[in-house]
Design a protein that fits this description.
Layout lengths: L2 H12 L5 E4 L2 E4 H5 L1 H5 L8 E5 L5 H12 L4 H4 L4 H4 L6 E2 L7 E2 H7 L5 E4 L9 H4 L3 E6 L2 H14 L9 H9 L8 H11 L5 E5 H6 L1 H11 L6 H10 L2 H5 L36 H14 L12
Parallel strand pairs: 3-6, 3-7, 7-8
Antiparallel strand pairs: 1-2, 4-5
This protein binds adenosine-3'-5'-diphosphate.
Length: about 300
């Protein structure tokens, strides 16, 4: 047996998936739940920018766009570190294995201003200081079906996630909101409502795919930045799926070693709209649509499931 294989085997034996705990009806993993009191007490600063998403909605993509805007298109500066070190992942706390150790809180507290912070928290669990300080928030939402497919593959490749079960089981869990960070439906609706009260730019993955330049310009404006056409084009190019897939500082191949296995499914998987059609059976799709109508009846939010 090669050393590489032996290391892999021993990780499979030692890294077990975390237990799940519910907090106010929202599913969290145990290490995140354990530090949640401290997360609630987090002291946001007025110039913090929060990037909030339901997991797999295009967080990393948005983070790269934001960083490139903040660095005025300087690719080298954006490669100073990996995404999760450049932008602390607020609630993420993970101890084992040591190669995957991470504390978003520690990173954020040690970081000089201005900070850009990432969260997957539903709006009601965001630390109150972000609202008290009137921080800017960029929220990105992705249609439920593509979000679900992406989340399923992410569970398969990432031992930091709960066990996904079969595809069929995962679809059920997603529909019932019994997945990490809770119900997708409540998440996107909660943030949609919050945008009327707070400083929130609400974006859609599908719009970003269709017209990245236009959506990047919205972010530029929201951040009160001024960039020229050349820089804008550079940002569009360097934040495309194809370029980010090959960027080790953005594709998660340098982080969470031992818990992410890109050979099962790469972090930068397909980056497409409508991939759900390759996974949902006709029966699953009908059931999903019927349930979706009910769950989304009380919102003006509209998603595009294809382009
Ligand atoms: P897929 O699994 O559908 O490919 P997050 O960063 O929130 O975890 O989201 C990850 C999803 O966003 C993955 O979706 C990933 O491929 C996609 N993604 C990442 N960078 C992207 C980009 N530049 N353009 C389009 N999609 C991107």
């Amino acid at each position: 047996m090669t050393l590489d294989k032996m290391e892999k085997l021993s990780l499979e034996q030692t890294v077990s998936r975390s237990a799940l705990v519910e907090l106010e009806g929202v599913v969290l993993i145990e290490p995140v739940h354990r530090t949640f009191d401290q997360v609630q007490k987090f002291k946001a600063r007025p110039d913090d920018l929060l990037i909030a998403t339901y997991a797999k909605a295009g967080t990393t993509w948005t983070q790269e766009i934001v960083d490139m805007i903040q660095q005025n298109g300087d690719v080298e500066k954006c490669r100073r570190d990996t995404t999760c070190k450049r932008h602390p992942f607020l609630e993420w706390s993970f101890q084992n294995p040591p190669s995957a150790r991470y504390s978003g809180l520690e990173l954020a507290e040690a970081m000089p201003s201005p900070r850009t912070i990432k969260t997957h928290l539903p709006v009601q669990l965001v630390p109150p200081s972000f609202w008290e300080q009137n921080c800017k928030v960029i929220y990105v939402a992705r249609n439920a079906k593509d979000n679900l497919v992406s989340y399923y593959h992410f569970h398969r490749m990432n031992k930091g996630m709960p066990e996904p079960g079969t595809w069929d089981e995962f679809v059920e869990k997603f529909m019932n909101g019994k997945v990490l960070w809770g119900s997708w439906y409540d998440h996107v609706k909660g943030w949609w409502k919050a945008k009327d009260k707070h400083h929130i730019l609400y974006l859609f993955y599908e719009d970003m795919k269709e017209n990245p330049k236009q959506e990047i310009q919205k972010i530029v404006k929201f951040l009160d930045k001024d960039i020229n056409e050349e820089v804008l084009n550079k940002i569009v190019y360097n934040t495309s799926f194809e370029i980010m897939k090959e960027n080790p500082m953005a594709n998660y191949t340098k982080d969470f070693e031992g818990i992410m296995d890109h050979s099962i499914s790469p972090f930068m998987r397909k980056g497409a709209v409508g991939d759900w059609k390759n996974y949902f059976t006709v029966a699953q799709n009908e059931k999903f649509d019927e349930d979706y109508k009910k769950k989304m009846a009380d919102t003006s939010l509209v998603f595009r499931m294809e382009l």
